[in-house]
User: What shape does this take?
Amino acid sequence: MEIVFILVEPAVAGNIGSAARAIKTMGFSELRLVNPCDYLSLEARKMAHASGEILENAEVFYGLKEALEDIDLSIATTAKQRDARLEFHPNTDIPEIIRSKGDTIKNVAIVFGGEESGLSNNDIRTCDI
Assistant: This one.
């Protein structure tokens, strides 16, 4: 199963580079960006440190729905109380939720919002969990 990381409207290039580095360090390779700032800037490349291929291969989308079109299971992340969903899961439950899907899914997207305010209620509603 493939794990895809999606950053929605990231505003700080260095944070995108740091995310690329973390993705590679964890053994993953796919990064998708929705309306990003300059993700190929010098700042992003410096923070990516030896993970430039993650930045260079990142797919860019204009909307979250477009970024999720080929995704079987999408998981929104939030640290804030939101009214977009009635059901929230602690992050410790997510591995078991994914495992419980078995062979019914080929890929999973973990979706993160922008630095300032996170995912909007609409973005959260767009995701499966």
User: Anything to note?
Assistant: The chain has a mean pLDDT of 93. The CA atoms of residues 1 and 9 lie 26 Å apart.
